[in-house]
Design goal:
heterodimer, A: 112 residues, seven-stranded mixed sheet, 53% strand, B: 112 residues, six-stranded mixed sheet, five-stranded antiparallel sheet, 11 strands
Chain lengths: 112, 112
């Protein structure tokens, strides 16, 4: 049974619109992460969180917000979606101390 | 980007042969993770490494923190080993974060 799930699995959004991507984990992990992957490239960290109600900026946070309302849930919010945010977004979770990361299936976002 | 450099960028393997992938780090890596992104796009965690060596079936990985590199060896390659292999390093940040920097990946194609 999948321990990290993401919704939606794919989405088409319009430029300037608001997009919310959701992630849910049942690993009982403290840490959760949001990455983006552009075609043919590796993953880049957008935001992460180590406790509910707190988020931290990753390497490319501009244009994104994050929300961690509970240990299990972590959302990525694009307030004003732009063409450059077309990508596949992955959520991951890890425990504390041993940061072995487990990934969700990804969300393919297309901004038109 | 170049903080984690993977080589080669692509590799074609005959079924049953062996090969090695390499990651060089320009950051002070404390831990390394290797992932396989399969043709469906899912990211599978292969290894979580502190300095040293781990083995799992036909895969073996080494992380040498003093010389800033990691290797992944594939023995007796099978068709299901095809996909893109990513290494990711956790750099020393003075605290605990689990933040990973990914390489650009090695695309492996196993042919029969």
């Amino acid at each position: 049974e999948a321990a990290v799930t993401q919704s939606p699995r794919s989405k088409v959004a319009v430029t300037g619109g608001k997009v919310t991507l959701s992630c849910h984990q049942t690993n009982n992990h403290d840490y959760m992460y949001w990455y983006r992957q552009d075609t043919g490239h590796g993953l880049r960290l957008i935001h992460y969180s180590y406790v509910a109600d707190s988020t931290e900026k990753g390497d490319i946070p501009d244009g994104y917000k994050a929300s961690r309302p509970s240990q299990e849930n972590f959302s990525l919010i694009l307030e004003l979606a732009s063409l450059s945010q077309t990508a596949v977004y992955f959520c991951a979770s890890s425990g504390l101390g041993v940061y072995e990361q487990y990934f969700g299936p990804g969300t393919r976002l297309t901004v038109l | 980007g170049d903080k984690v450099k993977q080589s080669p960028s692509a590799l074609s393997l005959q079924e049953g042969t062996n090969s090695a992938l390499r990651c060089n780090f320009s950051i002070a890596a404390t831990t390394v993770q290797w992932f396989l992104q399969n043709p469906r796009g899912s990211l599978i965690n292969l290894f979580y490494l502190v300095p040293g060596t781990k083995e799992n079936g036909r895969l073996k990985s080494t992380f040498n923190s003093k010389e800033s590199y990691s290797t992944l060896h594939i023995r007796d390659a099978q068709l299901e080993d095809s996909g893109t292999y990513f290494c990711a390093a956790e750099g020393y940040t003075g605290g605990l974060s689990g933040k990973l920097t990914f390489g650009e990946g090695t695309q492996v194609t196993v042919i029969s």
